[in-house]
Amino acid sequence: MAKPVTRYVGVIDGEPGVYGVWFPDLPGCTSGGATMDELLRNAQIALRLWAEDAIADGETIPAPRTIDEISADPDVMGAFHEGSVLAIVPLLIESGRSVKANLSMDAGLLAAIDEAAAARGLTRSAFLLSAAREKIAAEG
After folding, report:
1. Are residues 7 and 52 in the same domain?
2. Fewest C-beta in 10 Å: which of 45, 78, 100, 124?
3. φ, ψ dihedrals at 64, nearest 5°
4. How confident is the model over 121-134, as pLDDT tens digits?
């Protein structure tokens, strides 16, 4: 059975045009963006880069705390009083090793996937990987 995606709680502050996020469980892991969408995309990248650096340095990546645990953190409570909100951000670390997967789906859906992939200049696999990443990212 595959390991579930690890998700970290980020603290978002700022205002339109200048948003920031920091992760209480990952010291020094921060990011920013002009819009919330940009901020959340950048937050995923920051998480991945932080984790990859920690792994490369032989460090252990801290386990994420729950929303309740994070909300009780004094630093986070102070941020709440200043208008910050929380976001759940998935940590997606790719292994760099491809594996073959056998999937079953409706023939009509497969044809639509192939058509959409071709329209974007992608292979079926690249299209499905991109769609999976986007779905995971959108649902945190």
Report:
1. yes
2. 100
3. -75, 140
4. 988 888 888 888 77
